[in-house]
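dumping this here before i forget
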Amino acid sequence: MTVRTGVRVGVDVGSVRVGVATCDPAGLVATPVETLRRGRGDLDALAGLVAERAAVEVLVGLPTSLSGRPGPAAEAAEAYAGELADRLAVPVRLVDERFSTVSAQRGLQASGVDTRKGRSVIDQAAAVIILQGALDAERASGVAPGRLVEPGTRGAGPVDPKGVGAPERGAQDDVRGEK
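structure:
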């Protein structure tokens, strides 16, 4: 299978920081970009990064519980994705991000990085894991990952716990152009 072409931006939304990653135009490799401080101006700064990189899509991590049920962190990520979708002319999608921060922290620790001092690095690494997982899922399935966030909806609605495919999707979501 193939992945749609174009730069994408991956986002790990936290209560204090927002990790940002991007990928190459072929959608092969995700790389860290920066960590934004959550609060006044972070959505505008993120919108600026999306425009600067001429991204075709933004993938926001949706932290769900092991049971697949959303909790307060998931609700906050959905609201953030909705606010971001209102600011952008490109699609915003919510994708499952279970264990992205834990995986990022463990990977950095294994590399010798002091994660107590490198919280912003963890957030960027989590964004890389979210984006790379979405790219890999699309490559394996031929379907755009997660669920599209409609502007004005603040991200409300169910997400496929596997992060692959939305409950309702149009031909634009299928990499092959099929319904």
